[in-house]
Task: structure prediction
Amino acid sequence: MSDLKIVNPVSKTLTAVPEAFRNLWAHRGLIRNFTSRDISQRYRNSIIGYFWTVLEPLLLSAVYYFLFTIISGNPEERYPLWIILGVGPWQFFSKGLNESVNCLTGNKNMIRQIYFPREVFAVSKVLAQLVVTCMSLFVAVPFLMYLDISLTSQIIYVPIALLLVTLQVLGVGWLFAVPNVHHGDIAHMTRFITRAGFFVSPVMWTISMAKGGRAELLDYLFLNPMVLPLELMRSGFDGTEVPVPTWAVAWCLSFTFGMLILGLTVFKKTEAKVVKRL
Amino acid sequence: MSDHSIVLENIELAFPRHRVGLKSIFRWVQRRIGKEATIEPFVALKDVNIKVKKGEILGIIGKNGSGKSTLLRVMSGIYQPDEGKAMASGPVNLLSNVRIGFNGNLSGRENAYLYGSILGHSRQTMDSLMQSIIEFAELEAFIDQPLRTYSSGMQARLGLSVASAVQPEILLIDEVLAVGDEGFKERSRERIKSMVQDAATVVIVSHNLNYLKQVCDRMVFMKNGKVEFSGPVDECVQEYRNSISKGGK
Result:
């Protein structure tokens, strides 16, 4: 009898995830516009513009290389390549996580003035970061040429690694986005996680380098879900075997997808009520 | 088929006043030992029942802080009510700030596309509308310049021009009538008037009583988050004026 529907009802627990994906698909044009806005204004006022996407990881890698050489003498020949392939994805993780955790607090003006599904914010921020990361990977090309590494079919690991990071960042980001509106502590905590995580993730070092150390501690290291993507990046480019045990791969995959489903469900269930607190 | 476009049933909405923090733990302890230490939330809307018929133009008046804008945000789904139900028969378009998502570094054209997609228009729709948007905003010479070079009036013109380019089914308007110089104001009044006339259902919040008198079929007078009066336009305006002259709370 009635064609009246509740305006933007809160999702049911079980249908929250498919609903969110439907929303994202329906708003793909908006996501694309937000993403390209983010990318194009990132380097708007700089002289060398997009060159910064390549220069930043390159300079960071140079600093790490210098530091590492001081600490442990002569590193392996491929070490510079490894750092470069570590720095890019790590920056993607840390910037992407901080941005997706702040996806509600950072857009409060827009959220209070118009309604569209709010999962769009985190996705477009993270996609912008992903695009920048992909562009920065071109810096590896001269190193690959210098080291005379030819790409194998393992290059398929690279998109898989980037996908894993994307999903992790979104899942964790959505999980903490609503608590972050209640407590500013969350943003501090994520900043800490991304800073401390840098040292326990194979960015400056690799798993094969760590194997010389205390083996019983190495297992704990594999609990870090960023280990797999970072090692996949390296194996993807230089064709070596992925030095991650099967159980750790399974753990990383279940963490990634579990977190995505949990985070998105929590986000969809709670975001509507939290708008009042923005 | 119901003959209503928007139905609000027993809406209640309160804004929490305190932040959760260390102090809230102290307050919790104080409550445990029997002290009164609750911070009451600010009740913005209470027992609001409004039905808007299809094709009706409803005006909402009331003093600042009486809950008018909050009411529109509940209707458009920005706020979920704490109690009660907000229902609509189709997509609801809220026209409040006409500069949503504007970015100074992007060109006027890019901003128009961005704002259009925020409003839910596809790229194809925006492509076909872009020429008329630019003409209406009178920004032909500036449209590819960065937005930061625009005056605030020019920005508002661009925003209003985008926002009013597509005719929505259910339209909510929150005080966007007065932007730009006199010439543009006149044309935007005309544009909004024609939007109001063509849209199936309109809810307008405004302080411009004369304007509301011209366009509205019915009016609601909000006071302290409650519907004080709902009914014919003239009576409602009279109620409102009485309430102001009494200076009552």
Remarks:
- The CA atoms of residues 153 and 246 of chain B lie 37 Å apart.
- DSSP finds eight helices and nine strands in chain B.
- Strands of chain B lie at 4-15, 42-53, 57-62, 83-88, 92-95, 170-174, 201-205, 218-223, 226-231.
